[in-house]
Amino acid sequence: MASILTEERFVSIPSEVTVKLEGKILTVKGPLGELKKDFSHAKVHIELVGDKIVVKSLGSKRTDKAIVGTISTHIKNMVKGVTKGFTYKLKKVYSHFPINVKVSGDKILIENFIGERSPRIAKIVGNVKVIVKGDDVEVQGLDLEAVSQTAANIQQATKIKKKDPRVFLDGIYIYEKTEGMSG
Q1: Which CATH number fits domain 86-179: 3.90.930.12, 1.10.540.10, 2.60.120.10, 3.20.20.70?
Q2: 159: exposed, middle or buried (C-beta count within 10 Å: 0-12, 13-18, 19+)?
Q3: Selection from 106, 182, 119 nearest residue 146 by Cα
Q4: pLDDT value of position 4
Q5: Are 11 and 21 spatial neighbours (Cβ–Cβ below 8 Å)?
Q6: Do 8-83 and 86-179 fold alike per CATH?
Q7: Is 166 helix (H, G, I), strand (E, B) or coil?
Q8: Nearest CA to 153 among 117, 108, 114, 92?
Q9: Which are the contacts of 168, defined by CB distance < 8 A and separation ≥ 6?
Q10: How far is CA 112 from CA 71, 94, 102, 133, in A?
């Protein structure tokens, strides 16, 4: 059965970025570092044409067309990551017990949260840098998925269950998402 080409998207590549495509494994190198992602699970055709990456769908269904946009956005985020990077800023919010946040290897220890004796633990995903500055926690990295998942893990670790969220506001919350990394 022949496949019908129905959807096609182009991702332009800046001059300072180099892209290597081996099958459906894409490697993007830029001034800040390198990202590698495997797109073999997706029903798309990816090819490198000059200074553009072309993502084409192999089917005519709605989901086949939708995956083209998803994959092209992933590739755009990879290009942004190796040129600018990503930063998520989180704020410690507490009313009575001051929260202590420490980075220990690939884990974040959240101590003294609402007076608990044992620390809550959040996992750092991928090659992400976590910086604690007073009441702010910054999560920085090249891979948007790893940065956002790490920030979500921190916020989720401080979720209070079985209490009214309007009264018990303690936690660590994401308040800013930016492109670029500060030193």
Answers
A1: 3.90.930.12
A2: exposed
A3: 106
A4: 55
A5: no
A6: yes
A7: coil
A8: 108
A9: 114, 160
A10: 41, 10, 11, 17
pLDDT tens column, 138-164: 999 999 999 999 999 999 999 999 988
In angstroms, the CA 183 to CA 167 distance is: 36
CA–CA distance, 13 with 82 (Å, rounded to integer)? 11
Q: Tell me: the pLDDT tens digits for 34-75?
A: 999 999 998 899 999 989 999 998 888 888 889 999 999 999
Domain residue ranges in the chain = 8-83, 86-179
Share of the chain residues as helix, strand and coil, in percent rounded to the nearest 5: 20, 40, 40
The end-to-end CA distance of the chain, in Å, is 54
pLDDT surpassing 90 at residue 165: no
| pTM score of the predicted model | 0.90
Lookup: tokens for 159 = 């979720």
Residues whose CB falls within 8 Å of the CB of residue 20, separated by 6 or more in sequence, listed in order: 26, 27, 29
CA angle (158, 159, 161) in 5-degree steps: 135
